[in-house]
Design brief:
This protein is of the alpha+beta class. The protein has one domain (about 30-170): OB fold (Dihydrolipoamide Acetyltransferase, E2P) (Beta Barrel). Helix content is about 15%, strand content about 30%. Strands 1, 2, 3, 4, 5 and 6 form a 6-stranded antiparallel β-sheet that branches.
């Protein structure tokens, strides 16, 4: 009886062994709003205006070991509200990353990247209706940390920038 149990245990282990390879995951910090707010230097509610691939002058250097998989992106926003910190300009540019389109199917244990919806229909509104843009979406609350070079970056870093961004649905009023 004991030999059967031991044999069954070993057999079960051997059968499930190949399944364990893909089950390993990297730890991802899941921060509450309170943690995000406390650790941020700047918190803003932003409305995306445009997105473009980063240029050399944007200094979008992918995290170590990710140069082949990540591509720098610059999103330009209108600042709707500054919730924490000081920021006086009407617009803000955030350097972040997207997956290289040449990487089929994504990456195992890959990044949690930030992405933003730019609704071109809203941008092309007639001038008399442009004040509505402040009230209609899409808007995002973004938690930022000041970098050594003076720029702001997502609090949770480049690789997991999406954890520093929260979409706000509906009007801001």
């Amino acid at each position: 009886m004991k030999a059967r149990f031991t044999f069954g245990l070993i057999l079960g282990f051997l059968i499930t062994l190949p399944l364990h390879n893909d089950a390993h995951a990297r730890p991802i910090p899941l921060l509450s709003y309170d943690d995000l707010f406390k650790q941020s230097d700047l918190v803003m509610i932003l409305r995306p205006l445009s997105v473009r691939d980063a240029k050399k002058e944007d200094r979008a250097i992918p995290p170590k070991g990710q140069a082949d998989t990540l591509v720098g992106v610059v999103t330009r926003f209108q600042v709707s509200y500054v919730v924490k910190g000081e920021y006086k300009q009407k617009n803000f540019e955030l350097v972040h990353y997207r997956l290289n389109e040449l990487i089929p199917g994504g990456i195992v244990n890959g990044p949690t990247l930030a992405s933003f919806v730019v609704d071109k229909r809203l941008i092309n509104l007639p001038e008399r209706e442009k004040p509505l843009l402040d009230k209609i979406g899409p808007h995002y609350m973004v938690f930022l940390k000041k970098q050594a070079d003076g720029r702001f970056a997502c609090l949770t870093g480049e690789f997991d920038a999406g954890l520093s961004v929260r979409e706000i649905r509906g009007p801001l009023d």
